[in-house]
Design goal:
single chain, mainly alpha, 12 helices, globular
């Protein structure tokens, strides 16, 4: 009975994620249809040189191979000695699941499940996937924050990046008031509605489990601080290369915004896209990029949408090798590794 109830909850969660994406896509189509925006968007995409897209796909695929090496390094830190080729295959498998499949088990969970089939050190192997994702998420937030305060000098979010005018300030105040009102309503409902109280309890329970995993990971990896620093440095470098590639694509389609905006907007939307309310961050990432580029950098909405769609195409094409890994059975080990400490 309990298992059936859990399966029902998982299905509901999947349907909610799919519904969120469909609602976002529908709203986007309606918006594009108004004011002949689709004509301008089509003209922008038609002017795009396919060589730019092929080039950024190549850069992104190479960055994913190196990120798989980052995860392999974390595995070896815990004496999990799977081959680097196995780590690359499992990394692309997780990338495929994240971008294409709306299941309740995300790509990271699938990667954690299959990596335990390659070694008898199952806890350490599964924990490395969690740490790898956490480091990537954290590095995105750090890069966005650093770029904002250093490159943008902490400027206010106003039209054209020149600071908020009075109308924009009024709009922002209105959004803040609505957000506070909704938050207050949720708190009231939390005390009055039993279902909301149960949901809050489950969120608290999930948060405690997450905190426990973080503490366990901190204890384990604190013995190798140089590895963590190397992983962070590698992540920042790869994110910078990918962002620079999208900046070149943006210049190609006529976006004159400085590269400094890209180093704030892209990692910030990557972090937001990691929130599991969508499928592969769809709608969340695209909507965030369009909003930030238009409101903060003064970019035309059609151009901002074009660069956002370009990124989605790059992600999906780069994830396709994961489908071949699954079909060919490359995610399963030929034999299990018995991992011993180096001493």
């Amino acid at each position: 009975m309990g298992e059936e109830k859990n399966q029902t909850k998982k299905r509901i969660f999947v349907f909610l994620r799919i519904g969120f994406v469909l609602a976002g896509v529908t709203a986007g189509v309606i918006w594009i249809s108004g004011g002949q925006r689709y004509v301008k968007l089509g003209e922008i995409l038609a002017r795009m040189n396919p060589a730019f897209i092929v080039g950024i796909i190549g850069v992104f695929v190479l960055s994913q191979v190196i990120l798989a090496s980052r995860w392999w390094l974390l595995l070896r830190t815990q004496d999990v000695h799977i081959s680097i080729w196995a780590a690359v295959r499992l990394h692309f498998l997780g990338l495929f699941y994240n971008n294409f499949l709306p299941g309740s088990m995300g790509g990271d969970l699938m990667r954690a499940w299959y990596v335990t089939k390659h070694t008898h050190r199952r806890f350490e192997a599964a924990l490395s996937v969690f740490v790898d994702r956490f480091l990537g998420f954290t590095s995105s937030l750090i890069m966005a924050g650093f770029s904002y305060f250093v490159l943008l000098h902490g400027q206010k979010l106003g039209i054209g990046g020149a600071g908020a005018n009075s109308a924009a300030q009024g709009d922002y105040k209105g959004w803040v008031i609505w957000a506070l009102a909704i938050l207050g309503l949720m708190v009231v409902l939390g005390f009055l509605v039993p279902a909301v109280r149960r949901l809050a309890a489950k969120v608290w329970e999930w948060g405690m489990k997450l905190a426990k995993k973080l503490w366990t990971a901190a204890v384990i990896y604190s013995r190798n601080p140089m590895t963590i620093l190397a992983v962070f440095g590698l992540t920042f470098f790869l994110q910078g290369i990918v962002i620079a590639g999208f900046w070149l694509v943006g210049r190609h389609i006529g976006i004159e915004a400085s590269v400094k905006y890209y180093f704030v907007f892209f990692p910030l939307t990557w972090a937001l896209g990691a929130i599991p309310i969508s499928v592969g961050g769809a709608v969340v990432v695209e909507g965030g990029l369009v909003a930030l580029f238009t409101v903060v950098a003064g970019v035309e909405a059609e151009q901002a949408l074009a660069i956002a769609l370009c990124q989605r195409v790059v992600w999906m094409v780069a994830a396709l090798p994961g489908a071949f890994v699954h079909l060919a059975g490359g995610h399963l080990p030929k034999e299990i590794a018995i991992d011993y400490p180096e001493d």
